[in-house]
From TrEMBL:
Residues of the signal peptide: none
Organism from which the protein derives: Zhouia amylolytica
EC number, UniProt record: 6.1.1.4
The name this protein goes by in its record: Leucine--tRNA ligase
Catalytically driven reaction(s): tRNA(Leu) + L-leucine + ATP = L-leucyl-tRNA(Leu) + AMP + diphosphate
Amino acid sequence: MKYNFNEIEAKWQKYWRENKTFKAENNSDKPKYYVLDMFPYPSGAGLHVGHPLGYIASDIYSRFKRHQGFNVLHPMGYDSFGLPAEQYAIQTGQHPAITTEANITRYREQLDKIGFSFDWSREVRTSNPDYYKWTQWIFIQLFNSWYNVDADRAEDIARLISAFEVAGNAQVNAVCDDDVAVFTAAEWNEYTWEEKQSILLKYRLTYLAETEVNWCPALGTVLANDEIVNGVSERGGHPVVRKKMMQWSMRITAYAQRLLDGLDRLDWPQPLKESQTNWIGRSKGASVKFKIDGHDEFIEVFTTRPDTIFGVTFMTLAPELELVKAITTAEQKEAVESYIEATAKRSERDRMADVKTISGAFTGAYAIHPFTEEKIPIWIGDYVLASYGTGAVMAVPCGDQRDHDFANHFNIPIKNIFEGVDITEEAFADKDNTKIANSDFITGLGFKEATQLVIERLEAMGQGEGKINYRLRDAVFSRQRYWGEPFPVYYKNGIPQMIEAEHLPIRLPEVEKYLPTETGEPPLGNANVWAWDTDKNEVVSNDLIDNETVFPLELNTMPGWAGSSWYFNRYMDAINENEFASQEALNYWKDVDLYIGGSEHATGHLLYSRFWQKFLFDRELLPVDEYAKKLINQGMILGTSAFVYRVEGENKFVSKGLKNNYKVQAIHADVSFVNASDELDVEAFKNWRPEFKDAEFVYEEDKYLVGREVEKMSKSKYNVVNPDDICEEYGADTLRLYEMFLGPLEQAKPWNTAGITGVAGFLKKLWRLYFDDNGLVVTDNEPSKESLKTLHKTIKKATEDVANFSFNTSVSGFMIAVNELTAHKCHERAILEPLAILISPYAPHIAEELWASLGHAESISTAKWPEFDEKHLVESSKEYPVSFNGKMRFKKELPLDLTKEEIEKVIMADERTQKQLNGRTPKKVIVVPGKIINIVG
RNA sequence: GCUCGAGUGGUGGAAUUGGUAGACACGUUGGACUUAAAAUCCAAUGAACAGUAAUGUUCGUGCGGGUUCAAGUCCCGCCUCGAGUACCA
């Protein structure tokens, strides 16, 4: 019987579907295990061989855990809101929902062909109203919460309101906007409803605020940083300006410290944890208030070096700061204004790219040094960022290189406050070797003591305090797009109001155009039926807006990360209509045991989702505050592009080896035209495009050879390899094994089908242990000692390798096992039955077929994992490598029960030893029993 | 610039606590089967030198040092590539 993979794979995929083999139960006596993949965005291009790499690894792990007796949750779904579908809608008018549906269907077909053990009954799609209903619901929970710093957790906003009613806000320790005024209980109770609402908005965990965005007037839309190239829009090349817009933000900064602390408890890759740590960017220092000469305002700065306060010779403010206009003197007005204007025109990219140019302007105003009371000039400069800290720095040119450069450029004095350090050429920033000089009460002290003392004095004066600052900023949550979750928000006198949870979901309205409106409003501004009727509790026509009972709805939609920030919890109870997930399900599954995905999500999805998890935990909606115990990053699979060489100005192509004789252009050829030896199928290439039809080809040794280069796998580079084609030609089991065999899971690696025949051959060889041309050849005979040894060696290796996620080495292990068993002519059931189980997580279709052929009626998927027995591996002798001065010269088989002395005696007596020594007497003989013998001398 | 990761045959890669470098696979070469090809099977295959050969010697894990009986593995100093990040006060 031949191994017919197409037939076998179709058969078992059908079986699994019909028998719901991989459906996970929410009640089970078995221990739970939750294996999660980062869900994909269903793009129009379909899957290529790079996508399934992580899915194959997680599938192997899931299947392994099932063999070990776990109740495994292994779900899949789609992050189905997103820009490409919207872009396509703008171009074609096709509703994004239709495009998305078609893409999902294609993804599903492709995924099914690879034989994944997903529980599809739990599929989620972020663009499905049954799902985004709960995304909207979580948004409402965030709106109705504030962060109590004393309790270090989020609490119901109602508690904050009662606190205000009783004692005002002076005693409240909350994370909130900076500009909250102090009020008493009496004042609070006197405020109008609107006043109360606008104060509460400064405390809510999601809030409206003016945020700077990249606005492109010509496109009428906001652009992401990577949609801007050289200060103009990538599409169309229109100018982009920075503009303030009222947008929803998430108060993620309230969780900065907990997000940082939580990392210690997570088994995540170190580089990923580090990038989150850097992103959060905690720094310890002090905030210092400087009085401004002749003004009532203060300049508040954050500094990590309070010990250098006597080295301050100027202040620098970010040009965007409101304060700048207020303090600028008449003489400096013109210079300052033109500088501010120039800065506004420069995009953040420009400012970033151009670090060398030093620019700034003097405001004419002076700050007063808190200790010396000296007058310090106040400058503005675009090296100070409005969005970090307070947007102001106390400039210490002797201790900070940027301040040093700025001072030199504008001839501002530099004061040296370090003992024994020359600062004429560059600043001295070494905290550890600092000894402060010329600094009044801290002269002679080191960094630590001086810092401590300065903070104490500032606190006593009411002009500063110790402070911890974070780089992390609150996350903007509004998008001026169509294809995203609508906010459950309407506006009453400009005050945002949440729609009651029972009326969710608020469905995306139909629009005629997916572009922004002519007045520059987001696409939802095109909807005619987009108003909220507070009597009927439904979405009604805009004509009915009276601002009495019918109000306009929010026009922005939520960003891509909204739906992906909690989907892993939804999988636990995916079709619950009454809750985002039941407490029973949440308490049973609790968290993800293994999460596999790309490292590109390190500071986006993986940070936001931890934030939401902690928030929902605080509000007692979830049992744990970190959702993924272990995370693994899979490496990218790269494409191997193929190039042909066209002689410039001619329709003539020369083979790779001849290209240096001509002036040629390299042109991408589709990799499907090229075989494993880099030979081009010239006919196929000619038929590819009309302009190649009559091309001339110059061969070397009767062949046309292409050049190869490793690049990112992409449609535009014609190096995409489709998994369907591989499944068709070699089978899904071969694809799965080969993707694992390519190398370590975490490493990036080029895709090259050259080696796939080796894996395909392995499966054929495996099959032949069970079948010959006439049928099953498995016997119930006693297996040989050698075969038992092979089996148990393989059990050990397979079990260890899966535990270490070293799937490439386990595949080699299987190859070795099959090679050995073939050599032993092994056909015994006692060997072949456990072998099928070992291989089943990797090549599940063939394993099911072999299992069924051995007479089992049940699927192999829950068969018990074979147990390793040491006794089959016990050896009585060892072939010792014998080294001379560390170089292995020969081997000698010796019994393992010999003592060191006995081994030495036998080895010294060996004639090969004497030959090596050539008459010399060894200085030393090292014997490590069971390992090695080394003779020195 | 900073942070992290990685450099091993023609190729993908393996190597436990420092203990036989190159497992496994591809490719290549030779052979068997075949009218032929494909498929399959068998053998050889890090490099250099010597030898008809068995075999032997030397070199060899990015580079230069060091520790050790023994280093791909540990330590010090570099180089190259990749990823992330960026005027963070």
